[in-house]
Design brief:
The strands form 3 sheets. Strands 14-13-17-15-16-4-3-2-1-21 form a 10-stranded mixed sheet, covered by helices on one side. It has a 6-stranded mixed sheet with strand order 8-7-12-9-10-11, with no helix packed on it. It has a 5-stranded antiparallel sheet with strand order 5-20-6-18-19, with no helix packed on it. It has 4 helices and 21 strands. Strand 18 and strand 19 form a beta hairpin. The protein is 7% helix and 38% strand. It has one domain. With 317 residues, it is mainly beta.
């Protein structure tokens, strides 16, 4: 029996505790009306919710897919954006047309969202540095495009569609979970809920900037203790800012993704399959970039099930 579900959109504003700026939060909840048959696009074998499970945990229906977008200002004045993905979501690593490029030809998850994904997408964001930078390996759909490097910060996507972040060979991959895709990039920015010593070192070790200065567009990805992924970004930030933003957003572990304005981009939808919106304050790239196709790798965030055909919408204070 198919239940009609509701899509809730919440907007709330609060004061930033550190600097007193306005804090905008948009919570998007996409509810389900049946199981989606998109295994060919994602490699997932069955619907699962995000987060970790352990011995003795009870099986229950996962919460609806949700993305919460917040805009805030750090004490040093840099404007940051965070997007937390929770509920019944799955993650898909996509090849870029130029990077990884030809070695990735034939992959189901190519340079653009597929029609099946387009109906379920609630978010998408940029991947890491070009593979020619040699700061980590790349595996997609079981095919190793660039050898994985022990000790590197790694986004690991499992065959179920769930994902985790950690040091390759020391915490990830999680035992008993078949690996489907891996995106490595540099070393950890955040570990055990604190910025790593590396986060406070010279910014040059975190990638060359087009501006030649520490402050440039940067992005990062973290994981909280509930197993939810958190993307943070800014059009002008230092590596230390990224680490501080990840910790503020609740990340226990985090890694840097791509940098510089041409490649830092977040798109999100207020309902699964809805119009994509630019997520980062001052973002250069259009929200439609991942629909039209992109030259670099990116990660799509999909609702586990399609939304109901006529969901209700109401504001929640």
């Amino acid at each position: 029996m198919i239940k009609r579900s509701a899509l809730r959109v919440r907007k709330r504003s609060a004061l930033c505790a550190a600097a007193g700026p306005a804090l905008l939060a948009i919570a998007v909840t996409a509810c389900a009306a049946g199981c989606a048959a998109i295994a060919a696009d994602t490699g997932a074998t069955k619907p699962v919710g995000s987060g970790r499970t352990g011995p003795g945990s009870r099986a229950h229906a996962p919460a609806p897919a949700a993305v919460t977008v917040r805009h805030f200002v750090l004490p040093d004045g840099h404007r940051m954006t965070s997007a937390r993905f929770g509920g019944a979501v799955r993650f898909v690593l996509h090849c870029g047309s130029l990077d990884p490029g030809p070695p990735c030809q034939g992959q189901a998850a190519g340079p653009a969202l597929s029609p099946a994904e387009r109906r379920l997408v609630i978010g998408a964001f940029n991947g890491g540095f070009k593979l020619s930078a040699h700061v980590g390996g790349y595996e997609q759909a079981g095919a190793v495009i660039s050898p994985l490097v022990p000790g590197r910060a790694s986004l690991v996507i499992y065959r179920s569609g769930a994902a985790s972040i950690g040091i390759w060979g020391h915490g990830v991959p999680q035992p008993g979970k078949p690996v489907y895709s891996v995106r490595q990039n540099l070393v950890l920015l955040v570990r055990a809920g604190r910025p790593t010593p590396a986060a406070g070192r010279g910014w040059g070790s975190w990638g060359g900037t087009i501006t030649g200065a520490a402050g440039t567009a940067r992005s990062a990805l973290g994981e909280n203790v509930r197993g939810q992924l958190i993307y943070v970004a800014s059009m002008s930030a230092t590596p230390g800012d990224l680490a501080a933003a990840l910790v503020r957003a609740g990340a226990a572990t985090g890694m840097e993704l791509d940098i510089n304005a041409e490649w830092v981009q977040l798109a999100y939808a207020r309902r699964a399959g809805g119009p994509l919106r630019k997520g980062i304050t001052g973002q250069v790239r259009p929200a439609s970039q991942y629909v039209r196709g992109w030259t670099r790798d990116f990660i799509a965030v999909l609702a586990q099930w399609p939304p109901s055909p006529a969901p209700g919408v109401r504001a929640v204070p």
